[in-house]
Design goal:
Blueprint (H helix, E strand, L loop, with lengths): L3 H23 L15 E10 L8 E3 L4 H4 L2 E3 L15 E4 L14 E7 L2 E3 L2 E5 L2 E7 L5 E6 L4 E5 L5 E6 L3 E6 L7 E7 L4 E3 L5 E7 L2 E9 L3 E9 L4 E3 L2 E4 L2
Parallel strand pairs: 1-18, 1-19, 5-8, 7-13
Antiparallel strand pairs: 1-15, 2-3, 4-14, 4-16, 5-6, 8-11, 9-10, 9-12, 12-13, 16-17
């Protein structure tokens, strides 16, 4: 004769296994997942070039304001091209990143300097919530006039003066100095970190991109904007090369 306690234990175990299978079929997320099991990120890289690679000279202006500090001749830095045609200071960014693909991003901090009567850097990209430290390294008055999603006009009358400013809204910010008219710069703010500024050879590289299809844009202050669709695959490097006509 079978032990009634053993039979009861067997029936209970069978019922438990059946219940677990039904639960996992309804809620598969109950299955333990390895930590960090997000889809492998992809990379996007490429170049922005001028064709033919002979570029017109950057715009130059003769200065009569504070010439002892700033000098007599300045360039707007509006077109910097390498010998091989690479365009520096172009902004490359993904345009249509869904909110659920944007990872947590710690706000950044950028020193935005007035140095030798130039804004340094001339072009930069940041994420929302980042802080720019407005610095005056020159022994003369500068103003940092922000146009766009961050409207402000901040005076820096003293050398070494530094004022922080938080950038809370996405968009393209144009920066000018009301005292020295040739000074200008551009700051792009995005809710995501999938953007870059081309280097002196015209190259760019964006990492950590969730797999998917996106619109990629390139913007240059003098040459304008281009867009194209790109596909990013996990663990792979996709490539996108842009070309502007010198004409």
């Amino acid at each position: 004769m079978r032990n009634p306690w053993a039979v009861a234990a067997g029936v209970a175990a069978l019922l438990l296994m059946t219940t677990e299978r039904q639960s996992l079929a309804i809620a598969p997320w109950l299955v333990p997942q390895p930590q960090g099991a997000r889809p492998t990120a992809g990379i996007l890289e490429g170049t922005v070039r001028l064709n033919p690679p002979v570029a017109p000279a950057a715009t130059r202006v003769e200065n009569t304001t504070d010439p002892a500090v700033c000098g007599r001749l300045h360039t707007l830095e509006d077109l910097v091209v390498s010998r091989t045609g690479g365009i520096a200071s172009a902004i490359v960014a993904l345009e249509d990143v869904p909110d659920d693909r944007i990872p947590p991003v710690a706000p950044g901090r950028l020193v935005f300097d007035n140095r030798q009567c130039r804004f340094v850097p001339h072009v930069a990209v940041l994420t929302t919530g980042s802080v720019i430290d407005l610095l005056n390294s020159d022994p003369t008055l500068h103003t940092v006039h922000l146009y766009g999603p961050a409207e402000a006009n901040i005076a820096l009358p003293l050398q070494g003066m530094r004022i922080p400013r938080t950038l809370d809204r996405p968009g393209l910010i144009v920066v000018k100095c009301d005292v020295h008219g040739w000074m200008q710069a551009f700051l792009r703010v995005d809710a995501h970190p999938f953007h870059a500024v081309t280097d002196t050879s015209g190259g760019f590289r964006i990492t950590g991109i969730p797999p998917g299809d996106y619109t990629l844009s390139v913007w240059h202050e003098k040459l304008g904007e281009q867009r194209r669709r790109v596909s990013v695959r996990g663990g792979q490097a996709a490539r996108a090369d842009f070309e502007y006509s010198a004409k």
